[in-house]
């Protein structure tokens, strides 16, 4: 069983507007990212909200996801990971950490990461495109306690850094794993790419 934690609590400070609610395809960035996970092999999706949480919850009313509200989202990404972990099913063998501002990461890429994680005896699985690491990242369930101890805005980077011999890099066929929406130019770049599909 694979549980996915989607980090969607940030303030979009660089974009100066709630980027996850921006139009994308036939829905929004947030909805597209969630649908990519729901259409993959993950067994449950936990969405961690914070900034503008009520608006985002309305968008997700008809989707089969668990919602965690992080009141401490302004203290960094780690607080959202910890909040999401509180809802992870106890039967989960792996925990995927995904970012809500990466709507171009499709279900096929997510499935490939899951398949690779099953084929190797490694506890951390990271996608790589042209030598650059990206998201989503899979952690074996035995890392749960370590992740619960995270502090600040570094996400799972510290855990990865401390376990290089237990890390598997999976070559991705798309730059999407390294792309996110932080600026208005990023947003327009994503729109162009989705319109090419």
Tally of contiguous helical segments: 7
Percent helix, as a range, is 25-40%
Give the uncertain stretches in residue-range form.
none
Secondary-structure-based class equals: alpha/beta
Number of domains: 1
Shape: globular
Structural Rg: 16 Å
Main sheet specs: 8 strands, mixed
Q: Count the E strands.
A: 10
Name the CATH superfamily assignment.
Answer: Spore Coat Polysaccharide Biosynthesis Protein SpsA, Chain A
CATH architecture: Alpha-Beta Complex
Head-to-tail CA distance between termini: 31 Å
CATH class: Alpha Beta
- Average pLDDT, all residues: 92
The topology string of helices and strands comes to EEEHEHEHEHEEEHHEH
What is the CATH T-level topology? Spore Coat Polysaccharide Biosynthesis Protein SpsA, Chain A
Which percent band covers the strand fraction?
15-25%
Short description:
With 197 residues, this protein is of the alpha/beta class. It is built from seven helices and ten strands.
Describe it.
The protein is 32% helix and 22% strand. With 197 residues, it is an alpha/beta fold. The chain has one domain (2-196): Spore Coat Polysaccharide Biosynthesis Protein SpsA, Chain A (Alpha-Beta Complex), CATH 3.90.550. Strands 1, 4, 5, 6, 7, 8, 9 and 10 form an 8-stranded mixed sheet that branches. Strands 2-3 form a two-stranded antiparallel ribbon. The longest helix has 13 residues, at 107-119. It is globular, with a radius of gyration of 16 Å. The model has no long low-confidence stretch (mean pLDDT 92).
């Amino acid at each position: 069983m694979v549980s996915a934690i989607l980090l969607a609590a940030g303030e979009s400070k660089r974009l100066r507007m709630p980027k996850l609610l921006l139009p994308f395809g036939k829905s929004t960035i947030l909805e597209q990212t969630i649908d990519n996970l729901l259409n993959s092999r993950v067994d449950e999706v936990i969405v961690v909200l914070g900034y503008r949480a009520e608006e985002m919850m309305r968008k997700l009313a008809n989707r089969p996801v668990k919602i965690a509200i992080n009141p401490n989202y302004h203290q960094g990404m780690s607080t959202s990971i910890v909040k999401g972990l509180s809802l992870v099913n106890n039967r989960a063998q792996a925990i995927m950490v995904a970012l809500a501002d990466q709507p171009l990461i499709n279900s096929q890429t997510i499935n490939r990461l899951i398949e690779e994680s099953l084929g190797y005896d490694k506890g951390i699985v990271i996608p790589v495109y042209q030598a650059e690491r990206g998201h989503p990242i899979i952690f074996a369930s035995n890392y749960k306690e370590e992740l619960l101890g995270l502090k600040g805005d570094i996400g799972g980077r510290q855990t990865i850094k401390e376990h290089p011999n237990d890390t598997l890099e999976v070559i991705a066929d798309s730059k999407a794993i390294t792309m996110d929406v932080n600026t208005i130019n990023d947003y327009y770049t994503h729109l162009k790419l989705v319109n090419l599909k």
